[in-house]
Design goal:
52% helix; binds zinc ion; mainly alpha
């Protein structure tokens, strides 16, 4: 499966890639993860597929995982 497909499936699915919890379909992350992101990252998640969403999503997941590991405050 391509990375692009994985990202699309996550977008349509109900599992938050940031924390593994539940999220609403067609949202990037659960509300808690989304609101913990820096504002710039939040706004980048409004990009469209093929116009930067994939990169923004990947960066946000990496940021959330780093934060969960205590690397970001
Ligand atoms: Zn989450």
């Amino acid at each position: 499966m391509s990375e692009k497909q994985t990202i699309l499936e996550n977008f349509l699915g109900t599992t938050c890639a940031g924390c593994g919890g539940a999220k609403r379909p067609r949202m990037s992350h659960c509300a808690g993860c989304y609101h913990s992101l820096p504002r710039k990252m939040q706004s980048e998640l409004y990009r469209r597929f093929g116009e930067g969403y994939e990169a923004a999503f990947t960066a946000s997941v990496e940021w959330l995982h780093a934060r969960a590991a205590g690397e970001v405050r």
